Amino acid sequence: MDIVEGTISLNLPEGSNEVLLKNLYLSCDPYMQMLMSKIEGLEGFGTYSPGSPLTGYGVAKVLESGHPDYKKGDLVWGFTKWEEHSLVPSSQILFKIEHTDVPLSYYIGILGIPGMTAYAGFFEVGLPKKGDRVFVSAASGAVGQLVGQFAKFTGCYVVGSAGSKDKVDLLKNKLGFDDAFNYKEEPDLNAALKRYFPEGIDIYFENVGGKTLDAVLLNMRVHGRIVVCGMVSQYNLAQPDGVTNLANLIFKRIRIQGFGVADYYQLYPKFLEYVVPKIKEGKIVYVEDIVEGLEKAPPALIGLFSGRNVGKQVIVLARE
Ligand code: NDP
Fold it and tell me: Ligand 1 atom closest to Cα of 144?
């Protein structure tokens, strides 16, 4: 591939089924940190190597295609790289963007992996029912803000935790959570959860791990469900924070289940049917934190671990 003064000349070799993409929007995700470390159990997840562009989810425009499913001008989302243009093998899953009357950045947020993660985790793993009491950590983030809104659509009572007053206000005033608290200002998380859930928690949507999980274990109801989506507080630690209250899994007969969104891609059409009308009718809110330019991507990624992002962290490279 030759890139000359902003124009690209590409001759895909005869028989090639690769796709040349112009990357428009890139996603910053907490899991990317883990791919930079050597973590036992993560082998096979495509860990990063120094000198190569990071891989991750993005929204892109097809510039050339040797694959019959994609043609020049198509908009797609899927796995790409942190670079302006990417040549991707057709074996790499790319979803064609059908609804272009919503912001394209949504395909790395509410209509992409975070949206699918919230949907699969909450409905398929959490098995919610009306009246359930739901707690969500990292609740104002890309995934959490949707879990809370899905919980409200289901008729649940939902409380979120987040790391600043502004985020707590967002949860209560814009995202429709019944209540929210700033975990950084709660010296005793167990006492805080008892305040918000005097009758206990039916579903905990776990995004952070560590001390929050430990306090939640003391506050689950009998036969409660813990949906383990992520543990962002743990990804940068050499030694994981100790979780000491695991015996409650027995006392309360709790089901705790980890999940990976990739196991649920077959639900994507059903998910779109659920969520697209809600977006178009203004029934769902999606908060994004948008920065411009590839040079802003590394600090944005690092910022996820201090809570600098408010909502889904998006990097814009080009708008089309
Ligand atoms: P977010 O947009 O929520 O960004 C991360 C947020 O985590 C920060 O804004 C910060 O919010 C919070 N945070 C960071 N460090 C800590 C800490 N030490 N303790 C508590 N909170 C912290 O990210 P996503 O919504 O994209 O991801 C949420 C979780 O879902 C992550 O754990 C991620 O790995 C996981 N995930 C899992 C998937 C799966 O298939 N299982 C797929 C996609 C995501 P605050 O200011 O509130 O602290």
Answer: 25
